[in-house]
Amino acid sequence: MKKTVTITLVLLLVSISVAAQNSFKVKIWEDGVPDSNGITTPEMDEGNGRVSNISDPDITIYPANEMKNTGIAVIICPGGGYVRLATKHEGSDFAEWLTENGITGIVLKYRMPNHHHQIPLEDVQKAMSILRENATSWHINPKKIGVMGFSAGGHLASTLLTHFDSISRPDFGVLFYPVITSDEKLTHKGSFFNLTDETDDETLINYYSNEKQVKPNTPPVLLFHSNNDKTVAPENSTLFYEALRANDISSSLHIFPSGGHGWGFNPDYTYHQMMKDILLDWINLITML
């Protein structure tokens, strides 16, 4: 039994290593960014996959395992409060796992707003259009491209899910402990402040309070949260789910009893395997509809 477990673990580590080796980067704005976020200091690697001072965005593509390729692809938006990105446990770790399950994972290194609220949305919209333009050469079905996000990255993903044009509309969304609402009792004030500079402009505040932006053509969404999340209240997910349900959008909400905030792809998380099973089943089913 022990030998079987060891062999399985070795094969898993080898497959993950291959996925990482096959990955490649693409700059989002080859001809220069349309709007500067004003960050002039060098990009900073804070360790353990955390990156800040981002002014030059890109996507890292992890192609799906050729033998298992479903044609499904997911843009992954790591969290970090709109000041940094947690690109490992909320980025590459997820992408590498997705590839082994026939799904192309794309980690988006998006720019920080730095007093320019439109910047992150510009980047994720552009990333989606790049994927659709290159779908054939990257062995992706252009009608099976979703967006995934964590915490503030979940806010960005939910913004794309509710603010899109024909080429940037995702086909589905997966949100982990997302920041959704501007409601002072429920929002993550740091993320909203870093995005909007604590503006008094009600129009702008409502624009990014995404439970108010759900429409009948918003794509299906899968939401995960922890009941004891003290950083981003689980009501952020329930509000978004209620708005989706009110618009008759096929969606699912899973609130785990514990876990707090920021567990991402942490294998020590109590509900890690359950989360993976739910996620794969839901994505495979929703893309068949």
Structure description:
- This protein has eight helices and eleven strands.
- The protein is globular, with a radius of gyration of 18 Å.
- The chain has helices at 2-22, 88-99, 119-133, 152-162, 189-196, 202-207, 235-246, 272-286, and strands at residues 24-27, 44-47, 50-52, 58-62, 72-77, 84-86, 103-109, 145-150, 172-176, 221-226, 252-256.
- An eight-stranded mixed β-sheet has the order 1-4-7-5-8-9-10-11, with helices on both faces.
- It has a single domain (24-286), classed as Alpha/Beta hydrolase fold, catalytic domain (Rossmann fold, 3-Layer(aba) Sandwich).
- It is 35% helix and 19% strand.
- It is an alpha/beta fold and 289 residues long.
- InterPro entries: AB_hydrolase_fold, GDXG_lipolytic_enzyme, Peptidase_S9_cat.
Describe the structure concisely.
The protein is 35% helix and 19% strand.
Topology:
Elements: H1 2-22, E1 24-27, E2 44-47, E3 50-52, E4 58-62, E5 72-77, E6 84-86, H2 88-99, E7 103-109, H3 119-133, E8 145-150, H4 152-162, E9 172-176, H5 189-196, H6 202-207, E10 221-226, H7 235-246, E11 252-256, H8 272-286
Parallel strand pairs: 5-7, 5-8, 8-9, 9-10, 10-11
Antiparallel strand pairs: 1-4, 2-3, 3-6, 4-7
